[in-house]
Design a protein that fits this description.
Elements lengths: L2 H12 L30 E2 L8 E5 L26 H13 L5 E5 L6 H18 L5 E5 L6 H10 L2 E3 L7 H7 L5 H25 L10 E7 L6 H15 L3 E6 L18 H16 L4 H4 L13 H8 L6 E2 L5 H4 L7 H10 L7 H7 L3 H4 L3 E2 L14 H9 L22 H9 L3
Parallel strand pairs: 1-2, 2-3, 3-4, 4-5, 5-6, 6-7, 8-9
Helix pairs in contact: 2-3, 3-4, 4-6, 7-8
Protein name: DNA modification/repair radical SAM protein
Keywords: Iron, Iron-sulfur, Metal-binding, S-adenosyl-L-methionine
Organism: Anaeromassilibacillus senegalensis
Length: about 425
């Protein structure tokens, strides 16, 4: 099989791995080296279907020794198999970089024989890129659960960011769908990466010089919709992962039925795209808005509202917290108001040091008044005649979003258009404001 045929198969096999984000690393170009890395903006991938590219997103191999029920590359599935040789993939990466096709590499792999052997193949590839070609571009590599700790460390010294897929939201689901993987084998490399990052930071403070270990941090991915866990269970797991492993991001992948199995949804089941979207919104609330998983969802409401985003849903269900007087409320309180995001809350705090804010001023600052107006006052005045404990608030929000008031209909998630976005859509997409 020639290199381009391998590339076609292994980029296609990598498209279901979504744990790919901006690099988080600033590294200027150095004379005698190839490439540089920017902390933001590297978030696209090279794929066989012609999508916009920035990273070469590819598997080392799809010849997997495991038989995970949900995976297209599982051992028992009838699909073409191939494996890159380390130098072959390194040469391909450099060739694409020199043609200005890519800015870096996103490398994952199925388990070829054993986790250690798979890691050795990936390690050889990274070594050729970094040491022989002196490639200074961004590299994100997936750690293989079950691999030796020394191999994980060597990968971390060559990569900018690493990730270990948590795969499924519970140990029971992992045992049922991926019996060759264990919770312990997944969490062990996550622990090692976390500790390595902390040790590296300590050495940098103490000695002002140390080998960089995963400077862009680590992330993970879990599959949503293949198993019966509630949204609350998933969000609790996410919160725990952020606290325990200091992750940069948790990524969610709506399960796409590609293989038939009695333990999985039927092949004609639609991917839970709205659920994935809600999880990303709730994830943003955990990381930037000061919410806890227990506030967003509880025993009485274990799943997301299909009509309202998590922040708006919380506000409607907690009328005792509103209205909020924007000229006096602390920053943390402003963040809880629908339509006021992190940026606009900071602007409010700065602006009110010099003036009393009114609704026109809030609009200029960037507050989305069609949502916020139900929950705020300016100098004691409200822009809405509806009390925050009135069910009409919900109807008003639905009306402003163009949804029918007579009954709830879940919104249909769709990709943001790059050609006809509204200003609000653009801000929400780029900043995650809620």
């Amino acid at each position: 099989m020639d290199t381009m045929e391998k590339l076609r198969i292994l980029t296609d096999a990598a498209k279901y791995d979504v744990a790919c984000t901006s690099s988080g690393v600033d590294r200027a170009g150095v004379k005698g080296q190839l490439g540089s890395a920017a902390a933001c903006g590297i978030c696209h991938s090279f794929a066989s279907d012609g999508r916009c590219i920035s990273l070469l997103k590819v598997l080392m191999s799809n010849a997997c020794a495991y038989d995970c029920a949900y995976c297209l590359n599982r051992r028992s599935n009838d699909t073409p198999r191939t494996t890159f040789r380390p130098r072959e993939l390194a040469d391909l990466t450099i060739s694409f970089y020199r043609r200005n096709y890519i800015e870096g590499l996103f490398l994952s792999s199925a388990v070829v024989g054993t986790p250690d052997y798979t890691c050795e193949l990936m390690l050889q590839t990274l070594y050729i890129l970094r040491r022989e070609y002196r490639f200074g571009g961004y590299i994100h590599v997936k750690a293989i659960p079950g691999a030796d700790e020394a191999l994980i460390r060597e990968l971390g010294l060559l990569a900018d960011r690493m990730s270990v897929n948590i795969e499924l939201p519970s140990n029971d689901s992992l045992k049922r769908l991926a019996p060759q993987k264990t919770k312990e084998s997944i969490l062990a490399p996550m622990t090692r990466i976390r500790d390595g990052i902390r040790e590296n930071a300590h050495d940098l403070v103490k000695y002002r010089s140390a080998p960089q270990f995963v400077p862009g941090g680590q992330s993970t991915q879990m599959i949503i919709g293949a198993t019966p866990e509630s949204d609350r269970r998933i969000l609790q797991l996410t919160e725990g992962l952020y606290k325990k492993y200091s992750l940069k991001r948790v990524f969610y992948s709506a399960y796409i039925p590609l293989v038939e199995d009695r333990n999985l949804p039927a092949l004609n089941t639609a991917p839970p795209l709205l659920r994935e979207h809600r999880l990303y919104q709730a994830d943003w609330l955990l990381r930037f808005y000061g919410f806890t998983a227990g506030e967003i969802l509880d025993d009485a409401h274990p799943d997301f509202n299909p009509v309202l985003d998590p922040k708006c849903n919380w506000a409607v269900n907690h009328p005792e917290e509103f209205p909020v007087e924007v000229n006096r409320a602390p920053y943390e309180k402003l963040l809880r108001v629908p339509g006021i995001g992190v940026l606009s809350a900071k602007r409010i705090v700065r602006a009110r040091r010099e003036t009393k804010l009114d609704f026109d001023g809030l609009k200029r600052i960037g507050v989305v008044l069609k949502r916020a107006s139900y929950f705020i006052t300016c100098q004691g005045k409200s822009a809405s005649r509806i009390q925050t404990d009135n069910p009409a608030v919900l109807m008003g929000i639905l009306r402003d979003r163009g949804l029918p008031q007579g009954g709830f209909q879940p919104e249909m998630p769709e990709q943001l258009s790059l050609f006809t976005p509204t200003k609000e859509d653009g801000v929400k997409c780029l900043t995650g404001q809620l």
